């Protein structure tokens, strides 16, 4: 009985510690999301380089000054969706529309998942193009770095599109569109990325 009580006590302490870590992680997003957004809008190419270089560090040392790229994209979609609902009367026109393909999106949850898939496909397709054009083997190792790099500019683009023209509108879209940054980033770092991808594919 005492052993069981001790085990329950340890589990409770571990649960409290996990809640502490979770609370800090969530609250830190309020600090690091604006920081990451500002850096990405201001210097998207530098942030794409940063995403690539951070993956070379140990896992517990990665992205200590910003939010990781996939999480940054996910939070941008959540924020844009919430702000859109708040500014648009609570119901998105796609959700209320029952005609054609829009009839499959009958809730805000499905709309958010649809946006997550669509805006995640943009960095994924660009990352795949980079790997294929570099003539490297397509694998998890070769795809991860370019995908993370493309998630940074995709996040403010998704945020702006979700707001539907609010908060700087098309000006921010033109500045942060991932397809407009991809060619310059790939051209500037083609040699470095190609050698790194070929090394990863040979492992």
Query: Largest sheet, if any?
Result: none
| Distance, first to last CA | 52 Å
Count of discrete alpha- or pi-helical segments spanning 4 or more residues: 9
Q: Whole-number radius of gyration? A: 20 Å
Secondary-structure element order, N to C:
HHHHHHHHH
User: What structural class do helix, strand and pairing data support?
Assistant: mainly alpha
Could you characterize the architecture of this molecule?
It is built from nine helices and no strands. The C terminus is likely disordered. The protein folds into two domains: 31 residues; 158 residues, no CATH class. It starts with a helix and ends with a helix. The chain is an all-alpha fold.
Task: Please write out the topology.
Elements: H1 2-42, H2 44-54, H3 69-87, H4 93-96, H5 108-133, H6 140-163, H7 169-176, H8 178-188, H9 190-201
Task: Please sum up the structure shown.
The chain is mostly helical and 203 residues long. It is built from nine helices and no strands. Helices cover 77% and strands 0% of the residues.
Keywords:
77% helix, 203 residues, disordered C terminus, 9 helices, globular, mainly alpha
